[in-house]
Design goal:
Layout: H1 9-33, E1 37-42, E2 47-52, H2 60-71, H3 83-95, H4 101-120, H5 132-143, E3 148-151, E4 155-162, E5 169-176, H6 183-206, H7 219-223, H8 230-242, H9 253-270, E6 275-281, H10 300-319, E7 324-330, H11 332-335, H12 343-356, E8 362-366, H13 367-370, H14 379-387, H15 391-400, H16 402-418, H17 427-455, E9 460-463, E10 473-474, E11 495-498, E12 504-507, H18 509-514, E13 518-521, E14 527-530, E15 551-557, H19 563-569, E16 575-581, E17 589-595, H20 598-608, E18 612-613, E19 616-617, E20 619-621
Parallel strand pairs: 6-7, 6-9, 7-8, 9-10, 11-14
Antiparallel strand pairs: 1-2, 1-5, 3-4, 4-5, 11-12, 13-14, 15-17, 15-20, 16-17, 18-19
């Protein structure tokens, strides 16, 4: 509501920053590993986040879980629960699990009273800033670096410390014993417990830094906040965002996606906090320095993207003072192994882009911020242990989710230029290797998306890919030059080019070289290309009476090119027919296109000759005189 009182802002911020994220993490963990119970008991203030994954039964476990639920709703006469007392009660009840239901019920009644006494019995803090409860928690943490394991006939329970010496709280995990469990599965589950322990700790410590640290404003503050009316501010925000939004052919923005997006924007504005968004992007610079990028470092292309995002943030703040908060989740660690990229190179790229980002509205974080303790080489494995699905499950998503499948098809094309192939590799082998790597990428992509959803449940989810704009909204952070092989490109797969009209755009390196663009550097040493007067002359050879010709020849095409690629490449006008020719004697292919209008054919020849199609520079000309084939 817009009338949030100042006294409630701290609690509200805590709920936004930790409650939903912790709850979602526990739910995913419970579901993924079929747990009986998972909960986090926080010390200050008293909060219990839990995931209940089994239906209530007239058995020990349902009674015990009911008791834990009630413990979460105890009268909060103090800020802190005596966790040492809770651990003692918990151990007693777990050991009672094999006794009769009646005995269990009586012991639970005693436990309820003990828990209430524990919650009400907090002693005042001592002069050194600690109290008895924190000291007891430290004793627990020191007893075992890995926490405590409690075994009964049917269950195994784990008590794991959250934070240094349990200063944040306790993580409770209850598993049902399974004598037939596969050893590899047991090891994977143990790994997942460690990841959850580390991830929940990171959320509790760092989540306010991840984009939702502002507290809601009171009604009086809101009334003096806006330089224009709330509705005018909302309308102007939507107008500014529309300049970034991708508009693909499969767009479902109207009416479905827009309604969802608008409701989130209105919510942030109604409580007077920054409009929070999250964008997984900026993984690492492409390793293809022959065709795509100038060098394997962040350059003027990345700077263009940050300039556009900063301009967007400045525009929003001009009519909505709280502004917007964009969290860029750098995802290089997740994909580096599929691209055969060394992890140190990924970390170097992240340091470079953080230097290029000068906007206070844009923050950059990554997997290292979420899992700071896990070794670098194991971070992706940790992510997959908690959120990963099998390749069979990924294949099922590919069959049923159109957005997911479109991203997969894009990854396959990228792989054709990013992977290294031994000399003599045939086209079929290339395609098989690219498809396999793309499937692994989608497995990583899905796991990372689930992590982002858990950590940023209230943020507006943006994407660098062209989605249907419902669950995720695609955005353009830098524009591609006309004649590129993709309608939308990314800075880490391209170079920057300064056009003669003063506009900055993205271009592939091989396309810039064919067009004779000059390579320069900024004062800060960031390389880019400059458009010159040199023009690649297209062969326009037709008789006077054939000036209405609508056929166009495209030569030197790579074998990966499909009819869909050609249609996406030739954006001007309507193509009525495409004939792809693949001579057996040559590696490269060519095609004949028939346009509906001759002026579109002429535009295509004049603007796309020397452009890049699926990674290869192509010749775009009119067919030679007398050659109708």
């Amino acid at each position: 509501s817009t009338g949030v009182q100042a006294s409630r802002t701290s609690e509200h911020t805590m709920q936004i920053a930790t409650k939903s994220s912790t709850q979602k993490i526990l739910e995913v963990f419970s579901s993924r590993h079929n747990l009986v119970h998972a909960s986090a008991w926080l010390t200050d203030p008293l909060m219990v986040y839990a995931s209940w994954t089994q239906e209530a039964k007239e058995t020990y476990d349902s009674e015990f879980l009911r008791q834990l639920r009630e413990a979460a709703t105890l009268p909060k006469t103090t800020n802190t629960l005596n966790h040492n007392k809770f651990i003692q009660i918990l151990e007693e009840q777990l050991k009672e699990s094999t006794k009769s239901t009646e005995n269990t019920k009586l012991s639970l009644e005693r436990a309820e009273q003990q828990l209430k006494e524990a919650a009400e019995g907090t002693k005042p803090k001592t002069p050194n800033g600690n109290n008895e409860i924190i000291q007891q928690l430290e004793e627990f943490a020191k007893s075992s670096n890995e926490g405590k394991t409690i075994e009964t006939d049917n269950y195994t329970s784990y008590l794991l410390p959250l934070g240094t010496h349990s200063n944040l709280g306790i993580l409770l995990i209850v598993e049902e014993k399974n004598q037939q469990k596969d050893p590899q599965e047991s090891e994977q589950q143990k790994y997942a417990r460690e990841v959850v322990q580390e991830l929940v700790t990171s959320v509790l410590v760092n989540s306010p830094k991840w984009g939702l640290e502002s507290s809601p404003k009171s009604q009086a503050e809101l009334e003096t906040l806006f330089p224009v009316s709330l509705e005018d501010s909302f309308a102007r925000f939507m107008e500014e965002f529309e300049k970034l939004r991708k508009k693909p052919k499969h767009d479902e923005w109207e009416p479905k996606g827009r309604l969802i997006f608008e409701s989130k924007v209105r919510h942030f504005m109604s409580i007077g906090v920054p409009i929070a968004m999250v964008l997984p992007s900026f993984p690492f610079k492409s390793s293809n320095t022959k065709h795509k990028v100038i060098a394997r470092h962040a350059d003027m292309a990345e700077k263009l993207a940050f300039n556009r995002l900063q301009a967007f943030g400045d525009a929003v703040r001009s009519f909505y003072p709280p502004g917007m908060s964009l969290v860029i989740v750098s995802d290089g660690r997740v994909y580096s192994s599929q691209f055969e990229i060394d992890i140190e190179y990924v970390l170097s790229f992240q340091r470079e882009i953080k230097k290029l980002n000068t906007s206070s509205d844009v923050g950059i974080i990554g997997l290292g911020d979420f899992l700071p303790i896990t070794p670098e080489a194991s971070k992706r494995a940790g992510l997959l242990a908690l959120f990963g699905q099998s390749l069979e499950q990924v294949d099922e998503i590919l069959r049923t989710n159109a957005d997911f499948n479109r991203v997969y098809c894009g990854f396959k094309k990228f792989m054709a230029e990013e992977l290294h192939f031994p000399e003599g590799t045939v086209v079929k082998q290339r395609r098989v290797k690219c498809a396999g790597a793309a499937r692994e990428m989608m497995k990583s992509n899905d796991a990372y998306a689930r992590l982002v959803e858990c950590l940023f449940p209230h943020h507006i989810r943006l994407s660098i890919h062209a989605h249907s704009n419902v669950e995720k909204v695609g955005v353009t952070i830098a524009s591609m030059i006309p004649g590129s092989d993709m309608q939308w490109g990314t800075p880490w797969h391209n170079c920057a080019v300064l056009r003669k009209n003063g506009d900055w755009e993205l271009i592939r390196k091989n396309m810039a070289l064919v067009r004779g663009y000059e390579l320069k550097e900024t004062e800060d040493g960031l390389p880019y290309f400059v458009e010159g007067d040199k023009k690649i002359e297209a062969k326009i050879e037709f008789e006077e009476e054939e000036k209405g010709n609508t056929r166009v020849y495209i030569g030197d095409m790579l074998p990966e090119v499909t009819e869909t690629d050609i249609r996406e490449f030739c954006t001007q006008g309507n193509i009525t027919k495409i004939e792809i020719v693949c001579p057996k004697k040559w590696h490269l292919m060519h095609a004949f296109l028939t346009f509906e209008a001759s002026q579109d054919a002429i535009w295509t020849v004049e603007n796309l000759n020397g452009a890049s199609l699926c990674g290869g520079v192509v010749r775009v000309e009119f067919p030679r005189k007398g050659n109708k084939e």
